[in-house]
Amino acid sequence: MGTMELQMKNGSGNPVSQSSLRCLVMAAGLACGIPLYALAATYAWEEGYKQVIPSSNIEALSPDGMFGEQIGLYTGSLSFLSPTVDLRGNNDLKVSFGLAFSFDNPKVPSTWLPAVPHLEGVYPRDVVWKRMNQISGIEVGRCSAGKAAPPWASGGQVGSMSNVTSTWDATEYWNGDFLVLPGAGSQEILKAQSTGVKLPTDGKTYVWVTQQGWRFTCLPTAKNDPGEGFVGVSPDGMRYHFDWFAVRDEGGIDRPVGAGPAPKKGGKKGQVTPTVSARKVDYLLRDRVYIYPTLVEDRFGNSVTYTYDALGVKSITASDGRSISVTRVNDTTTVTAAGKTWTYTSSTVTLPDGSRWVYDFSHLSSLLNYSSDGGVASTSQCDTLPPATHGNAAPYYGTVTHPSGATATFTIAPTRHGRSYIPRNCIGGAVEGGYFYYAYRPYLFDTVSLVRREVTGPGLPTMTWQYSYGPPNNSWEANCTSGCVATKYVDVRDPDGTRTRHTFSNRWQLAEGKELLTETFDVNNVLRKKVEYAYQTDPTGQPYPAQIGVEGYTRGDQAATKFDPLLITKITQDGRTFTNQVNAYDDLARPTNVTKSSAPAP
Fold it and tell me: What whole-number distance in Å separates Cα of residue 356 and Cα of residue 344?
């Protein structure tokens, strides 16, 4: 925990000790000096999972949340929050310190990062959250210009005797910008619509919005970058100054020369140029860019100030006197607050009373491998994917030990998921020895998913939860003229033998990722409880806008650009049905009139 693969930038906007940052990945078993594209080479088709990020399906599933785990049931994603230093005050502004661990990229080793609300996006090394005029190439304001997508980027080429550059479209290296709220998922940041969306009336120009009600205006300069920063206004009126930049190696992305939708010199966007040799590979180095807050204010003049050094958060201070200080020596982070001390290392958190949390993630790897790289194939990668493996027969697991002595073991495995009713559009072209194709919008994608969770401890019986994933039910829209299955499910079997099946929509542009049905079965497989969900997917006649904003990532399903509020919840149990029906919404798609009923009537 003390060592984080995170690099702050200095006041001139240049990275702090860039060469030393690149060597921080050595803690994960990677060697300094090896090009990033060689460390984590990724083909574009391998990142299909990035198109499906249903943040609303992230939830804590442990009975009492005692191990800090969070599980996204739709894909089986797994993340953790460390014990948090949390100081209560006389207002609602939080003064807290903690760390978050998540598997956000199956090709890059995961690490602990500050659990602080922030903005996040993946960018090429030479772009770093920029916006440009695509015609003139002149940089424009990253915030104020309001351009939904970043510009084309320049990469390199491996296997060429000359210094050849490659050109990459934003849809290849980027999947949108996000507001990340630790413990509450992520929200895609959209370009604000000129009409129909409710914005603050404080005289400022709001350029960006999220589906969940955040609004963003601009700062002329960031604290440690010469470009602009952002001010995010939360739905409850808090103002977050996001203007401290940090980067972390994201790994490279590559493709055979001549494949991909990027514009070619002298040609049109999407033109395909065959390569001379299959040994030639275009590559692009990328960073995950974080923009952290330096100031948070409420409507009443209260505030919290964050300061940073080259390694991360240095202090958190509130206007009401609450204060947290953070110091780091090698692999140890010491947090002091209210006269007490918490100590974080790479594997432990020691609380003020001397008790400890212990983490062992040495066997828990998020790296995905494939039996073939799919780079040169005689069959289209649009329709098939190579088998996904870890490249190791041993199980992959991590453990968290509570101060009480109870230990939770989490086991993950490569899992294939599907999407339905996807328009088939293949990108690529001829290369030596075959063809390289991938789906512009994939109907198959792979993740590392939770498959088992086990709790043991002094005086405790062994308790095991098992997660199993149903068929992917993937389909192309053209093959669904007579209808296709548009759902996928995950079964969760509890220690007592009961089973809960969660069924989600996997239909493109129609509530994709939303839960439709929850069924609970007893140990004899008899259905005991059923919960059905329906959503208001048609905005016609509603007081909220049909479109909230513009999504720059055109390969996505545009789900974040519109409201699909919950309309009906129906619970059936013990011969009785309980219904919650929304009759009216406001302009933010919040219920204003609800009817609750049961049948038969009580």
Answer: 10
